[in-house]
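SUBJECT: A protein chain and its fold
Encoding: whole-number codes for local backbone shapes
RECORD BEGINS BELOW THIS LINE
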Amino acid sequence: MLGDSIAMGWGVNDDETFSYYLEKKLNKRVYNMAVSSYGSIREIKKLKLSPFYENSNTIIIQYHPNDLGENKDLDINKIYSKKEYQNNFGGKLSNVDMYKLLLGILKSSIRLFFSDINDYIFKESNLEIIDFSIHKKYLERVLKENIDLNKKRVIIFLPINPWQKVINFPNNSDQLEYIQIKMDKSDFFIIDDHPNKFGHLKIANRLFDYL
């Protein structure tokens, strides 16, 4: 299982993540290799450097729209210097960046808290539109260049928040499988857009049904 803080289980216990639930339902070992803030490049690099790549026949990737920037700009084969790493990942946030980060968290919380009212009043006009064709282009490039898709089953799933609408979501191909998982307001913590234990259970059930 690859992903970011959602798959890692931000805010829930280790026995409340969808990887844990899925392992119990499948009665098969599920390795949760998700890391908070990682995009697809670092997720796949971490997997390829681990013993689990060779030992796993199915790779499930929890995708997030935030992965796009990393997938566009980073080279999976490059060893970045400390300075480059700081610039890309570990640099001190400026006041402007901190403001943007806090504003984004606040915006997500407000959207989630008032999602029922927003849906009733604004409906389609208030949705965040995600054009997945752009994400697919860069995601598939890194997958096809770094994973043996003839030997590995790769499933990409996208959790969709109540205020989001996805367009141009791809159909399954011979090598890659795509799933949308529609989430409800009750599946999230009130203060941010990370799934609570009920949201994790929903994701696990959806993945189990698909598998």
Remarks:
- The chain has ten helices and five strands.
- The beta strands are 58-62, 128-131, 153-160, 164-167, 176-182.
- Residues 95-113 form the longest helix (19 residues).
- The domain at 5-210 is CATH 3.40.50 (Rossmann fold).
